[in-house]
Write a structure and sequence with these properties.
- 18% of the residues lie in helices and 38% in strands.
- The chain has 72 residues and is α+β, with helices and mostly antiparallel strands.
- The chain has one domain: Ferrous iron transport protein A (FeoA) (SH3 type barrels, Roll).
- It has a 5-stranded antiparallel β-sheet with strand order 4-3-2-1-5.
- Strand 3 and strand 4 form a beta hairpin.
């Protein structure tokens, strides 16, 4: 599934990144490498962005980024 579809509070694991170039580098720098656990913590009232707990840090990502991340 895509990270965008992850329900709040569910623990998941990054499988792959479909991003390329600068977007891929940014996601890797944020710690989104295959095998990393990720939890959707909060969504804004409009639904975008969503806050995720990644490696002990809460990071807000927009759907344009989370649509490029596959999780299980």
């Amino acid at each position: 599934m895509l990270l965008t579809q992850l329900p709040l509070g569910v623990i998941s694991e990054v499988v792959s990144l479909e991003a390329e170039g600068i977007k891929r580098r940014r996601l890797l720098d944020l710690g989104l490498i295959p095998g990393t656990q990720i939890i959707a913590k909060r969504r804004s009232p409009s639904g975008d962005p969503t806050a995720y707990l990644i490696r002990g840090t809460v990071i807000a990502l927009r759907s344009e980024e989370t649509n490029l991340i596959k999780v299980r």
